Structure formats: structure tokens, C-alpha cells
Amino acid sequence: MRLFENFFQTICSHVLPSACIICGAFQQRTLCVACSALLDSDQLSNYECCKQCGLTLVGNEIADQRCQECLNNPPYFDETYCLDRYDGRLQTALHQLKYQRRLACAHGLASAWNQLISEDIKQMQADYLLPVPLSQEKLCARGFNQSWEVARRIRCTNTVNKNPHVLLRHHHTQHQAHENRANRYKAIQHMFYINPKYSECLESATIIVFDDVMTSGATLNEIARILKDNGVSRVINWVLLRTLRPSQRSEHV
After folding, report:
1. What is the span of the domain harbouring residue 157?
2. CA–CA separation, 179 vs 73, rounded Å?
3. Over the stretch 145-165, which tens digit does the pLDDT of each residue have?
């Protein structure tokens, strides 16, 4: 039944008039011109951000273009590009996609990415674009992978192979949303693995990993570790929404 529901919503999102995912204005496009302009003026990429993890930098970090955490404890991934902060204008639409199964929001979120992310990022050369996977149990319960629903609609070069089947994930019953950084890193260890069908394709590859939200970076770091253990040479994160340091959140409202 859920599969039919998702199929029906996808058809409707293409055929029927929609509403802006931010302001709700009824129109054909899923992101209105006014809200697009507001996002453009305040998106996270307008700020000085860590090239490695995407956090906004404080004054003494700008010269290195890296946050202190990435300098002290370098993650396995090489670069991170984020569209906006987690508590910004796109948060509600993402929640509606994930928890209310409003697949039309995937179109709007992808539209926001396609309109606002820089051309340099969209033209980035890579071999694969992989969404952060859900476990089979979580995928069956939700009916879709929200990261893939957005990733498959975003623009990139034709040479990039979008594939939701390369990265796989074991099931974990413990919810990580309210765990501290150390516990997140510990809990996520060995949760991901490579589909054996693709293991030979990854040698010396450049991989883009797409995630809907980046919080501590534990998930993306573990994925990058697994990928590099399997021969990948470079891992780049594309992230829709990034949580900021607690002291910085109010500065970007």
C-alpha cells in the first residue's frame, strides 16, 4: 500500500499545481521566486565555512579555511558543501518529506539546491554520487530514502553515476538524534558496507556522498572511512542542511 501511495504522490507532484515548500503560496513551482531570493541572500555558502566539514568558521579559523576540530582530528572525507543551515527556511519541508511522506517536498528541496548551489559545485568531476543509505528495515518502514529522493533530482555532470545501491547499511534500533558527539561516533562504527557488486568499481574513484542533514559528521565520516578502505581516493560531501555550533545558531537566524 505504501509503495502505491508513494507512486501516486510522485505522479501528482509532476502533474498537478503545487505550493511553495517554504511559504505555502499556491503555484506551479515548488519554490516561489520570493522565497528563492530569501534563501539566496542567507544561504550557508554565503558565509566562510570549513572546506572539510562545512561548519561556519570563527575569526581565527578563516586563514586556514578549516575549523579547529578538522585541524586537530582530520575526518576521512575531503570536502563538504552545504546549502543551508538546519534551523533555516528549508527545515519544515525536509521534515514533511521525512516524517509526513510528502514526496513533492523532494522536488522543492532539489529545486532549491539546483537554483542556489554554485555552478562550480554542480560541475564537479566525480565518478559516483551516492546517497547516505537507510537500512532495509528503515527503508521498508518509511517507504523511501529521503536522501536519494533529493539526490536523484539534483543537477550534476553527465559523467557522474548516481547510484543508491553501492552503499548499504546495517539496521540499528538506537536513535541517535539526542546523543552527544562521542556516542554518535561510537554508535555508527561498522554500520555501513559496500555492495560486493560494486567493490571493483571504486578503486581510485572520486565519490560524492549526498546527505539531507549533517550534524556531528559521524555518519559521513564513517562512510568516508569505508569508501577509502575500499580503494576510493577522494570523498566529497554534498549536504542539504548543516547544523551549526550552538554558539553560532542565533547569529544566522
Report:
1. 2-252
2. 20
3. 999 999 999 999 999 999 999
SS (H, E, C) the chain: CHHHHHHHHHHHHHHCCEECCCCCCEECCCCCHHHHHHHHHHCHHHCCECCCCCCECCHHHCCCCCCHHHHHCCCCCCEEEEEEECCCCCHHHHHHHHHHCCCHHHHHHHHHHHHHCCHHHHCCCCCEEEECCCCHHHHHHHCCCHHHHHHCCCCCCCCCEECCCCEEECCCCCCCCCCCHHHHHHHHCCCEEECHHHHHHHCCCEEEEEEEEECCCHHHHHHHHHHHHCCCCEEEEEEEEECCCCCCHHHHC
Total structural domains within the chain? 1
Q: What is the pLDDT of residues 102-118, one digit of tens each?
A: 988 999 999 999 999 99
209-227 confidence digits (pLDDT tens)? 999 999 999 999 999 999 9
pLDDT at 1: 44
∠ CA 207-213-216, rounded to 5°: 90
Rounded Cα distance between 246 and 80, Å, is 20
Which residue do the cell numbers 554500520 mark?
191
Neighbours of 18 (CB within 10 A): 20
- Res. 180 pLDDT band, cuts 50 70 90: low
How far is the C-alpha of 33 from the C-alpha of 17, rounded, in Å? Answer: 16
In the prediction, which pLDDT does 42 show?
87
